[in-house]
Fold:
Amino acid sequence: MAMIEVRGLWKAFGDKEVLRGIDLTVEPGKTFVVLGASGSGKTVLLKHVIGLLKPDRGSVRVDGVEMSGLHGLALTEARQVFGMVFQGAALFDSMTVFDNVAFPLKEKRRRISFDELSGRVVESLRVVDLGEDVLDQWPSQLSGGMRKRVALARALVADPKVVLYDEPTTGLDPITTDSVDQMINRAKERRGVTSMVISHDIASAFRVADRLAVLYDGKIAAQGTPEEVRRSEDPYVQRFLALWFEKQ
Amino acid sequence: MRRLRAVFEDFGDLLLFGGEAVAWTVRPPWRTELLLQQMAAIGVGSTFIVAITGLFSGMVLALQGNYAMRQFGAEGYVGGFVALSLVRELGPVFTGLMVTGRSGSAITTELGTMRVTEQIDAMESMAVNPVHYLVVPRVVASTLMMPVLAMVFSGTGYLGGYLIATYVSFIAPGPFLDHTRRMLEVEDLLHGLLKAVIFGVVVSLVATYRGYAATGGARGVGEATTRAVVMSSVSILVLDYVITFFAIG
Structure:
């Protein structure tokens, strides 16, 4: 059974149609990347997957649960399977790194002992190459790359089945981008999580994707393995990818 | 016409938001630690400013009361006048306005910043309802602490009034206290406390709603804070009249 299944998804804001019939399937334990230019509707798609937005038409099923019809407590329960890394990291700036990473676990298991909690936080930070020295730091004291890593550690700490990444490499230098890509791959290999990555970073997308889709004008212009998408004859996809491949 | 419709829509959204907050208030888990933190921030943190405001309000009431009643030779009634004014009106109203300026604006700014930096979305993505986690503790804390602060205001105000009446206006302490005892009844205290509770709900709901619905970056947060302070202040004064009208009108 597919972990994420989107069928005929339509969404408009006022007169502007942002998504116009999206169909995609993400298999368990795989990384699916949605590529597209700014304003192509990538983040809107991601927010439908986690139920932050409701579709005008179509369905979004995650782990067998239809997300679009859920509200209140049922939606909150359904989100237990997710971890999400936001574009700007979205760390809670009134909490230290420890409290940020511990937050989802404390909320999921309210009777967890402090020792177990500490152990899980340290272990999760280790996956993203961060040591115990950052535990007492505040988000404002961290660099952009470190904030992204802490956000990934926070997304992984409660053992989610699905991790969603919203532009994980935007604004990062090439070395930090490469290390974030490695961490996405490591999270998949070590934890077996299903990942959905939204990005306009073509190099990064080809490094992490098992399958990818190119979003253009609210529709999927091409979808398949990285090699299949590279060979796509869609004019937009060719133009979108050509700029990057020429640089290489 | 469109503007009027927008105002009604906004008010409807505020009511729905309030309904959601009430629904989550009675659902576990109970976040006692967060509630205590908010009670300290809203209540303990506002005590000094409320006490100072109360002290000077009571002092000026004593001066004005003495000025007015001296013309009828009724200086002895100043004690009752100060006490009734503080307990029924100035205590809850001024406390509501002070908490709006100090805590309400801070709540809107904090939640607004969290909204525009996706921290609230992040919380939702972690299967934590932000209304339950962020809004409920602030609304409950404000509702519980506003009557306490109103009593602090009235208490320090009465003390200020007593000091001015006896040491500046030279009114004998006996008649001042005696008229207070005769004029002030339990019903007056309950009237003031009821107002404070209602203002506590209104100030915190407006502040959290404006922050929660903030959009558009730093400027949007600034606008949300301004609107929260204006809406809370006007609501307090309008509701004060409505409650008083139904109580004694």
The mean pLDDT of chain B is 94. Chain B is about 85% helix and 0% strand. Chain B has one domain: 14-242. Helices of chain B lie at 2-25, 32-70, 78-116, 119-125, 130-167, 173-183, 186-212, 217-248.
